[in-house]
């Protein structure tokens, strides 16, 4: 992908009107923004508080809006870099002209350094971000006993209703190659841009006001005296399996991620 970005920069240099000019490339720090982690009230009346939220992802991409400078450049860019399509309610399409390559463990609730790295973006009007879900491995620096090994995300917390609480842990595994496409990211980038980018998990969708845990009846799913409620795939209990599939599907939606902008 990095090679493709520089190829695109070369195309723009050769095809631009007037004096050749390379599009500015800007490096911006990306970090795990905890601002989307909040206590929420679900549609079933549960107050849910997360105490752990970790995700393994690969290749955070940033997409610009609209067409490039000419139809010729647009056709060339389509041959060099992928086109991304978002779902209704978010940016519909765009070319990938920014990236943070690599595998990353994003920890929105821990004490670790939240900085992921520096993304490189070409100048443009950005509207969305994409990334690919991965699965944790010891090669990521995780201890072999870490529950994130073999899983895409770990969500741990407590759901309370009518004075009673249920501790839970969800161990989510995304299908190979599953991506988030079209997470909101509104920023005009030029040579003078000097901001930090925060990748957020949004427990509450700010556009539709629904939550990550809507539809989950924690009390009905929990077994008395059996420890925390565990939501994971491959279980025989059809109700728990349905709850797991619902949570995983909601979590994989672009509705619950965005990229925030922070002045330096």
Secondary structure layout plus pairing:
Blueprint lengths: L1 H14 L9 E9 L6 E2 L5 E18 L6 H10 L2 E3 L7 E15 L7 E8 L1 E10 L19 E9 L2 E9 L6 E11 L5 E7 L16 H4 L7 E4 L5 H14 L5 E7 L1
Parallel strand pairs: 1-11, 9-12
Antiparallel strand pairs: 1-6, 2-3, 3-5, 3-7, 3-8, 4-5, 5-6, 7-10, 8-9, 11-13
Helix pairs in contact: 1-2
Notes on the structure:
This protein has 264 residues and is α+β, with helices and mostly antiparallel strands. The protein is 16% helix and 42% strand. The chain contains 4 helices and 13 strands. The longest helix is centred in the N-terminal third of the chain and has 14 residues, at 2-15.
Q: What's the story with the biggest beta sheet?
A: 13 strands, mixed
Outline, from the CA principal axes?
Answer: elongated
Helical content band: 10-25%
Proportion of strand residues: 35-45%
User: H/E element string?
Assistant: HEEEHEEEEEEEEHEHE
Low-pLDDT sequence parts: 11-16, 67-92
How much is the radius of gyration in Å? 20 Å
Helix count equals 4
Oligomeric nature of the chains: single chain
Number of strands: 13
| Average pLDDT, all residues | 86
Derived structural class: alpha+beta
How many angstroms separate the termini?
27 Å
Descriptors for this entry?
264 residues, alpha+beta, 13 strands, elongated
In short:
By secondary structure, the chain is of the alpha+beta class. The chain has helices at 2-15, 71-80, 218-221, 238-251, and strands at residues 25-33, 40-41, 47-64, 83-85, 93-107, 115-122, 124-133, 153-161, 164-172, 179-189, 195-201, 229-232, 257-263.
């Amino acid at each position: 992908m990095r090679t493709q970005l520089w190829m695109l920069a070369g195309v723009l240099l050769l095809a631009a009107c007037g004096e050749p000019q390379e599009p500015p490339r800007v490096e911006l720090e990306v970090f795990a923004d905890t601002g989307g982690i909040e206590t929420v009230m679900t549609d079933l009346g549960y107050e849910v508080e997360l105490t752990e939220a970790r995700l393994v992802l690969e290749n955070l991409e940033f997409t610009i809006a609209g067409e490039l400078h000419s139809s010729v450049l647009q056709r060339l860019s389509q041959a060099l870099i992928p086109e991304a399509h978002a779902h209704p309610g978010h940016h519909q399409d765009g070319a990938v002209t920014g990236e943070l390559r690599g595998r990353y463990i994003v920890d929105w609730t821990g004490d670790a350094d939240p900085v992921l790295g520096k993304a490189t973006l070409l100048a443009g009007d950005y509207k969305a971000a994409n990334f690919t879900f991965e699965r944790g491995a010891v090669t990521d620096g995780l201890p072999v006993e870490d529950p994130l090994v073999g899983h895409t995300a770990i969500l741990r917390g407590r759901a309370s209703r009518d004075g009673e609480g249920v501790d839970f842990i969800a161990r989510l595994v995304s299908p190979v190659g599953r991506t988030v496409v079209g997470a909101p990211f509104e920023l005009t980038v030029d040579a003078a841009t000097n901001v930090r980018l925060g990748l957020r998990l949004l427990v509450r969708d700010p556009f539709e006001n629904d939550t990550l845990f809507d539809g989950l009846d924690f009390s009905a799913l929990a077994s008395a005296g059996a420890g925390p409620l565990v939501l994971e795939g491959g279980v025989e209990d059809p109700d728990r399996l349905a709850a797991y599939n619902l949570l995983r599907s909601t979590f994989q939606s672009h509705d619950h991620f965005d990229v925030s902008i922070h002045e330096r």
